[in-house]
Amino acid sequence: MVAPNKYTLYQGPVRRLLQRAVLLGCFSAGLGTAYAQQPATTVVGKVVDNNGNTVDGAVISTARGEHSAMSNGAGIFNIKVGAGTPLRVMAMGFESRLVNATKPGDTLVVQLSTASTGLNEVVVTALGVKREKRNLTFSSQEVKGEELLKAKEPNVINALAGKVSGVQITSSSGTPGASSRIVIRGNMSVTGDNQALFVVDGVPIDNSETSTVSGGAAGAGSSRVVDIDPNTIESINVLKGAAATALYGSSGAKGVVMITTKAGSLEKRPTVTVSSDYSIDKGLFPERQTSWAQGSQGKFLNGEAADQKTSTSWGPRMDTLTINGKPAPRYNPYDFFRTGHTNNNAVSVGGGTGSSSYFFSYSYLDQTGIVPKNELKRNSLFAKFSNKIGSKINTTLQVAYSNTNQNRLPEGQSNGPLFVVLVQPVSWNPYPYLNPDGSQRLYRNSRNAPLWAVENENNNSVVNRFIPVFTANYMATPWLTVTERAGADMYTEQDKYLEAPSAAISLPGKIIDQVNVYRQFNHDLIVDGHKQFGKLDVDLLLGNNVLTNYTQYHNITGVGVNVKDFENVSATGTITATEAHYQTRKVGFYAQANLDYDKFLVLSLTGRYDGSSVLASDKAFYPYGSAAAGFIFSKFFSQEVSRVMNFGKVRFSYASVGNDGVGAYSLLTPYTLAYRNGYAYPYQGQGGFLISSTLGNEHLQNERMNEAEAGLEMKFFNGRIGFEGSYFDRKSKNGLIPGVSISNATGYSGTTVNSARIENKGIELLLDVNPVRTKDFSWDFTFNFSHIRNKVLELYGDTKQLGRVIVGQPYNIFYGARYSRNAKGQLLIDDNGMPVVDPDQGIVGNANPDWLAGLNNNFRYKQLSLGFFFDYKKGGDVQNDVESLGMFYGTAKVTENRDPLVVKGVNATTGEVNKVAVNAQAYYQSRQYESSIQDGTYLKLRTVTLSYDLKTKVLPHTFFKSAVVSVTGRNLWIYSPHFTGADPEASSYGAANGNVGIYSFGTPTTRSVNFSVKLGF
Question: How far apart are CA 971 and CA 721, in angstroms?
């Protein structure tokens, strides 16, 4: 297949516009050079910081900005002005300073001080452009790399959990490498991807959920960000609102996670850092009853003979049961699980000369999960080299490579081991799992024995990934820079799924070989000008982006395994193969103007014009942009007020951004593989294809999201207290919905349409406090809070529901069988004492939390540091399938009391309070879907870290420059008062939209203790 408009998007008028932009940049560079040649006297200077280190990129200009220069890697600058001329020296992260030019022959040394209030903090924004946080007109939040490493999480997404306001992160399971979901400011697309875009050093990367095999058993896959080594991350900046992400085009409409990697330093001797982590991981399991044996209605069934098998534990009490005249032994089903272990070793070296810098890193992660054969191994290599060519050109070349190897067993209500383990009777001895004749020894029918599944099922995934980035900055003049950035994200994933024949569940066995090839190429050409005109500071940015994606997919499935232990698909009975290729392209032109008047009034205007190959040819290009303003009112405070409140800013923004959230070839109606008698063609040597039942829509246009945002930022007591609050209101329209049902009379069952509308409103708060700061002791804490409300406004025509998405309700509700209630909400009970089932299904829960909060505390006493992080989620319902089926099977903790019970409610006929008792087994085995929905409120002590820096006691007598030892606990305490599982943070089937809030026999969450040593020399 060939994507519509695949090559035409970058030809004709688009190419001519790009050529003119390049010519304009060169012409501007020439003007700037001519302008700078006016003065006659040369002043030579050097810019350093408080510690005497050189400051690269400092801007030196005359008071009115007529002449300017920039310091190089050695901090040296040259500017032609008269002696005694006032000069303003500015650099990001430092307080600006006014000095007088020296006479010719003397060297002017300018020392800049880091702002103690933190007002000049520099953050990385869209396209990798650095800006002072005080001038930002949108909401963003930065997390330092060292803070991420404290979490001891192999997956960067999980390390961010609870730390950023407005962001909800949900891990799928405790399987090593399992996927995690990250959503910023709520869901906005009905069926499209709602997760944030990840960007590494200005280049977008893929974070799809892969490693799931088509035709294999259920379970979560892996988020491809798991390939990123946290040891290489300098910082992460989360861009939340549309005004912050507009420059990233449609890819950034759901928010952006900006990853900045580590780099070397100019004129610095090599520094080697070695770290080693080792953790012990224990599973957290739901409580269950251990008092009752296998059986039904109080009768014991031992599970051995054919007429003794049952899946339920409604037998006699274990303390009254005897077998062969002896008290029946209890067996703990959770003995199936083991202690997990994680080893993570990393080494890096960084440094530089006067004109170049380098950073190299290698790490090896080896994680064994608590379920046998669940493993993750990752080798990561990272190299970055920067070099100055003359005084005007700076280049950076970096390459990240990772090899990720994951083994895991099926999860969920599949034929994997976990379904049986979590509801297994305590009276059943799982050993041995084979009968003398080699068949499975089972206590029930229709399921494999867990230990048999461990030996005879497996899903292996091997991913090799490269992320190269090349950046060249040409400083045409001290005020104009041209940046060329080319990057790629390329990986190949090889999956092999194995399932031996099982007579117990009548499966002939299966072998699946699957290969995914992903290639993404990104190119940006950016012209960035910075000029000062008196009190007006102007930043202008122009750019062009080209993004190309190519995906190739092959799946070979063999059914009927004929040769034991021969894991080759060619040896199976029936072989079918599928193949698919997808290629898309986006082209964008963007511009941004940032105007700063006298350091108190900031205006930011952004515009982008995007073209997408997946949209209709006459609607492939679409414009959007943003306008934002910030007013720094603290500029006008008196000196007395400024001593208390150092900084105050209000900001307002409005943005309208587009999104092409639909798959490739949705404009077309392609052919699909045909089937005969349940088997795919070719059939008897004859190939067969049918036209797809989903009709292509050649009129598709982009989704549109409009967002208004207001914010307040303040700092008090010389930066000891910082506050940031944001309110946003965003609405999407023309939402793309694939697979909408249409009349079968058309010859098709569905199509893709533009129609959905969704709104999100919310408040985000961030409080950063440093109550104590002395030479020997300090205490600081950060608190964040998010409150987001979501509502589906429209779907398609008269369609009111698509799965868990219902018009007039929040996104992702739970809908299904429920009980009847009266006007007061009381359960209606029939004359037999059982709840009355409502004849109509309805809404029984809402997966969206009421609010989220996080509290991070850090204490330091001399070289000893203690940090702990609490994460809180209020509300957000969870579908607890483990509890629901545990009630049916009689293993749930609530079923331990088996006395006749009276269901609380009123008689449906008389309205009187129910007093009729019912049999416990009959009651629990008749529970409806509504009974599986539980409040997922939780409070987690997510991490506790105790570390000691050996720098003063030991290091002077060694060749080490630094040494830190630490111990970290993760998930040490989870309080979930309304949830009967182990951890309500659940999405057992993966990170897709419809899987959120489902707790269903996934690998349990683990409690971990990690020991770490980090050495520098």
Answer: 29
At residue 114, the pLDDT reads: 66
The mean-pLDDT minimum among 88-102, 652-666, 830-844 falls in 88-102
Residue of 708, 821, 694, 783 whose CA lies nearest to 747: 694
What is the mean predicted confidence (pLDDT) over 765-779?
Answer: 93
- Condensed to tens digits (0 to 9), the pLDDT of residues 687-706 reads 888 898 889 999 999 999 99
Give the pLDDT confidence of 176-220 residue by residue, as tens digits.
999 999 999 999 888 888 999 999 999 999 999 998 898 888 888
Contact 493, 462 (CB under 8 A): yes
* Closest-CA residue to 939 (of 859, 866, 852, 1001): 852
Confidence band, pLDDT 50/70/90 cuts, at residue 92: low
For the chain, percent of residues with pLDDT exceeding 70: 94
Please calculate the CA angle 464-468-472 and round it to the nearest 5 degrees: 180
The mean pLDDT value for 648-653 works out to 96
Reported residue count of the chain is 1017
| End-to-end Cα, the chain, rounded Å | 55
The secondary structure of residue 929, as a DSSP letter, is G
Q: Output b/e per residue, 440-466; b: 16+ Cβ within 10 A.
A: bbbbbeebbbbbbbbebbbbbbbbbbe
Give the whole-angstrom CA distance, residue 136 versus residue 244: 9
Q: Are 68 and 43 in contact (CB under 8 A)?
A: no
Bridge partners for 256 per DSSP: 197, 239
Q: Which residues contact 827 (CB under 8 A, 6 or more apart)?
A: 819, 820, 821, 835, 836, 903, 904, 905, 906
Task: Report the C-alpha gap between 367 and 502 in whole angstroms.
Answer: 30
249-276 b/e (C-beta count within 10 Å ≥ 16 → b):
bbbbbbbbbbbbbbbbbbbeeebebbbe
The residues, any chain, with a CB within 8 Å of residue 291's CB and separated by 6 or more, are 317, 318, 319, 896
Q: Is the pLDDT of residue 933 over 90?
A: yes
Give residue for tokens 């000196």: 639
Whole-angstrom CA distances from 893 to 291, 879, 897 are: 10, 17, 9
Specify the pTM.
Answer: 0.88
Q: Which residues pair with 131 in a beta bridge?
A: 123
What is each CA distance from 454 to 121, 303, 494, 749, in whole angstroms?
Answer: 52, 21, 21, 41
Q: What does 204-252 look like in DSSP terms, one character per residue?
A: EE---EE-PPTTS-----EEGGGGS-GGGEEEEEEE-SHHHHGGGGGGG
Q: CA separation (Å) from 157 to 220, 666, 719, 866?
A: 15, 31, 29, 23
For residue 367, pLDDT beyond 70 = yes
List the structure tokens of 571: 């040896």
- The pLDDT value given to residue 4: 40
Which residues, 6+ apart, have CB-to-CB distance to 155 below 8 Å?
Answer: 177, 180, 223, 225, 226
SS3 103: coil
Return d(Cα 268, Cα 274) in angstroms, integer: 18
Tokens of 251: 């890819």
DSSP state for residue 720 in the 8-state scheme: T
Using CA atoms of 171, 173, 174, 179 in order, give the dihedral in degrees to the nearest 10. Answer: -60
Per DSSP (E only), the strands in 106-196 are: 107-111, 122-124, 130-132, 140-144, 167-171, 180-184
Degrees to nearest 5, angle at CA 889 with 886 and 890? 75
Residue 70 to residues 57, 65, 474, 517: CA-CA distances in angstroms?
Answer: 6, 13, 13, 45
Q: Which amino acid does the sequence have at 550?
A: Y
Taking the CA atoms of residue 8, residue 9, residue 11 and residue 16 in that order, the dihedral angle to the nearest 10 degrees is 160
Q: Residue 462's beta-bridge partner residues? A: 405, 494
